[in-house]
Amino acid sequence: MNSGQATFSSAVADFEAAVRARDSQASGDAFGLLQQTFHDADDAELAAVAPRLATLLPEVPPGPRSVVAVVIGAAVERGADPLACAPTVLAGVGEALAGAEEFTTRWAATGGGDLPDPEHSDPEDAVFDRVGQPATEAWWTLPQWEMAAVAVLNHKPVRLALPDRAALIDAAERVGDATGGGLKYLRYMLAVLDDEPLVVLHRESGTGYRVRISGLGDNFQLHTLLAGELVGGGHVPGTAPSNLAVAVCRAGTGDTDTTGSFNLVAPDGTWIWNEGIPADIPVVDGVRLLVLDPPPYERAWPAGRLFSNMPGDLVLEAALPASEAAEWLARTAPAKDV
């Protein structure tokens, strides 16, 4: 088919046929057209075609498979059904993580040294010889799989339906640790809490609150929304974040900075860093327990969402009775020095 006549739908149909016929020349041609025509497809066409690509994904050869996963993720960002598209993308992420972990193990066993950067170079023959083709392909395609995974995991129904999340989190942590802290976005996204109850204690006033959080990518977002509800709602003293700062931490758009209202502290007195995630907050008697202390110094940051396509939510469900707040506070330690 002439590229001037091709549409995304026709390129996907040709790609499906070629992949299933195991015709490498035809599938390569159709794959090129698929990438060329994606941006000209309208949202209705993407919604109709993306689930077909997702069904085809396990049959796609390893070379282009991660790029096809990125195309599927981009289609989801433009309105394709995330639940229909996510399962094979996330299964591919699991396989890529397993292959990448094998890559790091073999790399260490064959002399070690700095791991190659898949985002700034192509694999050399020596890498294939040293580690093997499947593990090398997994390592080099991991950035694409991370991008595709985040695109589908932006959607709460996908996160709630995700099987074996703990296994994916463990694998992403192991590979991330092996790279010196890589895969931040995948690790943070996999750890996102939804419909999660949280007990929040404001030590200075002796008050406590039950809140429920969903879709918060980091503790900067949590901090801003807590301050919006508690300070902005008149429950505790302090300077509330602006309405815009709160809005962009939920689902709004805009540019603004905000200043911290609290120091986030764990029940044992250790700090909960804004750079961390809500899943860092410890569980006590089946519920996450967070203490709010006065900020030890002024902190400011750009208000917003780490994952701009993921809406965030924090609901203040109730203020605790004074006796219950006191009982919780009695089980906490003063904040420790850093």
Uncertain ranges: none
Strand content: 5-15%
Order of helices and strands: HHHHHHHHHHEEHHEEEEEEH
Counting H and I runs of at least 4 residues, what is the number of helices? 13
The largest sheet is: 6 strands, mixed
Q: Looking at the structure, what is the overall shape?
A: elongated
How much helix is in the residues?
40-55%
If you average the pLDDT, what whole number results? 94
Provide the gyration radius in Å: 23 Å
Tell me the structural class. alpha+beta
How far from one another are the termini? 64 Å
Instruction: Give the beta-strand count.
Output: 8
Search tags:
two-stranded antiparallel ribbon; 338 residues; six-stranded mixed β-sheet; 50% helix; 13 helices; elongated; alpha+beta; 8 strands
Describe the structure.
It is a single chain. This protein is an alpha+beta fold and 338 residues long. 50% of the residues lie in helices and 12% in strands. The chain has helices spanning 8-20, 24-37, 43-56, 62-77, 82-109, 125-131, 133-153, 156-161, 165-178, 184-190, 219-230, 243-250, 322-330; strands at residues 196-202, 207-214, 257-259, 263-265, 283-284, 287-293, 300-302, 313-319. The strands form 2 sheets. Strands 1, 2, 4, 5, 6 and 8 form a 6-stranded mixed sheet that branches. A hairpin with a 2-residue loop joins strand 5 (283-284) and strand 6 (287-293). Helix 3 runs antiparallel to helix 4 and helix 5 runs antiparallel to helix 7 (133-153). The mean pLDDT is 94.
